[in-house]
Amino acid sequence: MIEEQAVVVKLEGKYVWLETQRQSSCGHCSVKDGCGTQVLGKALGNKTVIVRCLNSLHVAMGDVVVVGIKESALLKGSLLLYFLPLLIMIFSAGLSVMISQRWFPELVDFIAIISSFLGLLCGLVVSRKYVQGANNTADFEPLLLRKLEKSMDEHEIKIILPS
After folding, report:
1. Helix 108-132 to helix 84-103 angle, to the nearest 10 degrees?
2. pLDDT at 153
3. Best exposed site among 26, 31, 67, 69 by fewest CB in 10 Å?
């Protein structure tokens, strides 16, 4: 389970909207001074992300919680988002090259480029439709794991176990 702290910013029926601080892992390894990715991370900065989650702990506005997502859901989502569109793009480019060499030999490169973009777009649409399916929505939703209580000192956080 991958965990992150979040703050409840909105209540909506049986769901809550949580705001998390997106943090880069760059700068924590041994080559942090010689890595170009760290420079890019600093330029983009830490952004906030707002996600919807089922209110299983009955939290209120302003509560600090720990939210988690299963590793398998993250892996499956990454494959759907990155691998499937690239696979469809490569397949459509290869197929179009084979077909265009026979009928349009002077336009092979142009047709390959156009079909690659169309394949990528098609792969992204297929990924989105799959994720939006009613059966798959719960697989990718984050879960409320526990509620944290902020004490007087903002840096000290106490854990409240659900009853």
Report:
1. 150
2. 42
3. 31
**94 vs 68: CA distance, rounded Å:** 40
| 55 CA to centre of own chain | 20
Residue 106 has pLDDT above 60, yes or no: yes
Instruction: Assess contact for 145 and 70: CB atoms under 8 A.
Output: no
**SS3 at position 149:** strand
3-state DSSP assignment of residue 1 = coil
Count, residues in the chain? 163
- Domains detected in the chain: 1-69+142-163 (2.40.50), 70-132 (no CATH)
Mean pLDDT estimate for the chain: 80
Which 3 state secondary structure label does DSSP give 143? strand
Is the separation of the CB atoms in 52 and 10 below 8 Å? no
Radius of gyration of the chain (CA): 22
Lowest mean pLDDT among 52-61, 94-103, 114-123: 52-61
Per the DSSP assignment, residues forming a β-bridge with 163 are none
pLDDT at 91: 95
